[in-house]
Amino acid sequence: MTQTPLLSRRALLQRAAWAAGVAAWPRWAGAGTGALRHDPFTLGVASGDPSPDGMVLWTRLVPAEPGAWNRPIAVRWEVAHDDAFRRIVQRGTATALPELAHSVHVELQGLAPGRWYHYRFLQGDAVSATGRTRTAPAAGDLAPGLRIAFASCQRWEHGHYAAWADVCRQSPDLVLFLGDYIYEYASPKDPAGLARVHGLRLAHTLADYRDRYALHKSDPSLQAAHALCPWATTWDDHEVQNDYAGTHGRGDAADFLAMRTAAWQAFYEHTPLRAASLAASGFGALQVYRALPWGRLATVHLLDARQFRDRQACRAEGSSGAGAVRPGDCAELQAPGRSFLGAAQERWLDAGLAADARGGGVGSAIGDGTQWSVIAQQTLFSPRHYPSGVQSTDSWDGYPAARQRLLQSVARHALRNTVLLGGDIHQNYVCNVMAPTDGAAPAESPLAPTARVLASEFCGTSISSRSGTTQDKVDAIARHNPHVLLARCDLRGWGLAEVTPRRWTTTLRTVDDPLRADSGASTLARFVVEDGRPGPVRDL
How confident is the model at residue 245 (pLDDT cuts 50, 70, 90)? Predict the structure, then answer.
């Protein structure tokens, strides 16, 4: 990325790190503390990545007129036990930098583990909405429960965000957002059948991506869900460009990398990420994969399946997208070295799963491991064998050797319980994840008589994005894949995982009409996974 007009890359990263702290402010942090004549908090508030003693608080200041501010703006923040802010726990001043779109990332420490807090931002006489957040349990604690909302894919035009209103009614402890927070497209020229349209062009520049996040964050139901509880967010492809893979995208390579850098900067600016996610190279790389422990009850291993993956098999360089192939016509598909996560992330995940099995956290005995190992990633992990014989290349199906390595890692570490969560495909899938049986790609052979269930998978449908297929076709796939327990493409919504030491319960929630902002919602299905017994069992 080229230098910004005001700061070098190194200085920008240093300032971002300063701005994420809560003390020892540099002198420039006090600039611009005068009263404002408008509400600068129109994009709402958010919190994220809870730890036992803190979390990240986020907001972004919006000027009354575009480009009106070209200086750092000081923002006060408060954290309290109560929503009236009579019992203040911490308060301080953060800095909104113009080079980061006046976004604010406050990294809190020193809070009590396992409890709820309220927070807000203040600038001049303006006060933000009040957010509610919480810390994770202490490292050695076996928490009695955890409620996780998992969701993905919220294209603006395809539907209102009634699913987020339903999330708020269910009051989870944590939201896992698994990718496609924005869509880079311009609105279709024909608005027929759409819920709403926008006037933004196909995103290409930093300003374009900032405008796209501002559009999505203007939705009141999405703002309410952000203010409800902490989020942990990863990305998929539409935060940059459809079907991109690592350094491979559409068109000229240099233009694509510049666009990707701009898109990743906008992602950081609009997400409650820690400053540690910023790499030394600036926004040419972000550390998005990370582990989120919830005491000994669960560890969420949140993955990045875009930044480090190999190009899709048999995809021409610079082509417009990835498709499906016939395995016999694409030798590259079976290449053993191809990776979906990249070698470094594969090693990191293997080490994290080993730690789950080993245990030994603060306050726990060696061998007293994690109850539930959660692998949260972008797409469907289990294979889909199509009746036509073709094979997808943009999902784990396109990286069979990488899937085999992850299955072997889970099996080798003998984890107590493993659950995979995914999104991307705009369909609800519930699957038995089959264990490796030998060295010959058992994940591609779910009909093998010696196959056993290793783990459970819940791949959620989209918040609003359409599936692009029909239920008849999905039913044919389910009949062809006995490890698939449920497959539905026709409904939009989200998933609720209720986790206790002895049971995992996933409830698939769907909205009645995605074209209505006030749509109701209902339960499509509920599945239970019992402690020590891999595989989902339908309960409703």
Answer: very high
Query: What is the distance between the alpha carbons of residues 327 and 400, in angstroms, rounded to a whole number?
Result: 11
pTM over 0.85: yes
Last residue of a domain, one of 90, 117, 135: 135
Beta strand extents in 17-135 (DSSP E only) = 45-51, 54-60, 73-80, 88-96, 103-107, 116-123, 126-127, 131-134
Q: Which of 135, 150, 166 is the last residue of a domain?
A: 135
**Average pLDDT for the chain:** 91
Q: Looking at the 3D structure of the chain, how many domains does it have? A: 2
- Determine the distance from the C-alpha atom of residue 73 to the mean position of all C-alpha atoms in its chain, rounded to a whole number: 29
Same domain? 127 vs 163: no
Q: How many CA atoms lie within 13 A of 115 on its CB side?
A: 12
Residue 300, number of CB atoms within 10 A of its CB: 23
What Rg do the C-alpha atoms of the chain give, in angstroms? Answer: 23
Beta bridge partners of 431: 457, 484
pLDDT tens per residue, range 182-193: 999 999 999 999
Q: H or E element: which one contains 522?
A: strand 521-530
Q: Are 343 and 350 in contact (CB under 8 A)?
A: no
φ and ψ of 164, to 5 deg:
-70, -35
Does residue 150 share a domain with residue 57?
Answer: no
If asked whether residues 461 and 419 sit together in one domain, one would say yes
Res 69: pLDDT:
86
Size (the chain), residues: 540
- Give the pLDDT confidence score for residue 13 in this predicted structure: 61
Residue 28 and residue 148 share a domain: no
Are 463 and 166 in contact by the 8 Å Cβ rule? The answer is no
Q: Give the CATH number for residue 285.
A: 3.60.21.70
- State the Cα–Cα distance between residues 327 and 334, nearest whole angstrom: 8
Structural domain boundaries, residue 422: 136-538
Q: Above pLDDT 90, what percent of the chain?
A: 84
Residue 59 in contact with residue 94, Cβ under 8 Å? no
Q: Do 380 and 472 reside in the same domain of the chain?
A: yes
Instruction: Please check whether residue 178 is in contact with residue 460, taking contact to mean a CB–CB distance below 8 angstroms.
Output: yes
Laid out side by side, the sheet with 174-177 consists of: 103-107, 54-60, 45-51, 231-233, 174-177, 146-151, 493-499, 503-511, 521-530, 533-538
